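Entry:
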Amino acid sequence: MKILHVIQAWSLSFGGTSTVIHGLTKAQSEGGLEVHVITTNLDTPSGELLDVPVNRPIETNGANVRFFPISNGALLYSGGIRSFLKHHCRDFDLIHVHGLYRFPMTYAAFQARKQRVPYVITPHGALDPYLYQRSTKGSVLLKRIYEWLFEMRSLHRASAIHYTAEEERQRAAFLNIQAPSFVVPNGLDWEMFRTLPPRGNFRKRLGLSKEPMLLFVGRIHFVKGLDILVDAFARVRKILPNAKLVIVGPDNDGYGREVQERVHRLDLQGEVIFTGALSGHELLQAYVDADVFVLTSYTENFGMTVVEAMACRTPVVISDQVNIYREVQSSGAGFVTQCDAGEVAAAIGKILTVSQEERLRMGESGRMFVEEQFTWPVVVQRLSEEYERVTQGAKSCA
């Protein structure tokens, strides 16, 4: 099967969606699919460009990737993408559109409909009602106009909508999308987690020994609920005064200053450690050394860091606004709370005060669940089955 993925940017600077596509295309190629990608040549959200040839295929991650320049930064309009889709849509068995509200994805859906090529849309969280609540009235109005002109037609007439969690599908129900839908999660590269590093190295670098260690990994941004986490940590320290909180991730939009101010107001200086962004083996060491991983997001489309922590046998506490909270509950890998500091503190306290045997059981349950449900071969197999249903014209509501 010949697949075309359409994504706004290939660069990993764009975060989650781009990272997922890198893993997906590699796994699909290894699984025997012929994988193509078209995207812009953007390197960063601020507008810097990749130093890559444009409008010709470059083999990377097992896929043939074509980069195109843009002439409008806001909508990512690209004459090259327009021309390619107009003339080559029918070269593919299926077009997989990743994201909404930008020209490459909108036009891909339009041409797929026009040329009667099956297409699947993965919103990657773009349909979460929380995003409407947090936006200004002006931006919501523009979004609604764009939906009315283009996007709702693309969604209603799609061969299928692909959600990465059942909760994401439920949150989009208010739009009454007529297209069939299915749920297949994002995948994890199990080879990175198959052999975990020994415990202690990360703690040693931070000057920690056996203190209870809480870990957050992600962007330092309001949406991640770090205000809830810091308040919860202050409560945990009343019970476990030697506990430490480690915050791993880049500062987005200067929000780190607000988090630092909160830490100071609660007199937690020296108890909360900011490491900046980590990756690779160093990040694995952080996961392995943590006693509990915490993600108290106000909204989270998937929560890949939760899956990574589970793969490292680390018990987790997450909010019920993280879309894979149902999966965490069923796995037995930790606790799910509301976005409330008291609830979060209580859940953390439970994990830190249970027996070592019980913590090990939670960690092992999480790792087994990830291996069974979230590794790329499993995900690609499920996605390929949905592709087959779509290309055969069968409606799918997995």
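Residues 2-187+376-391 form a domain with the Rossmann fold fold (CATH 3.40.50.2000).
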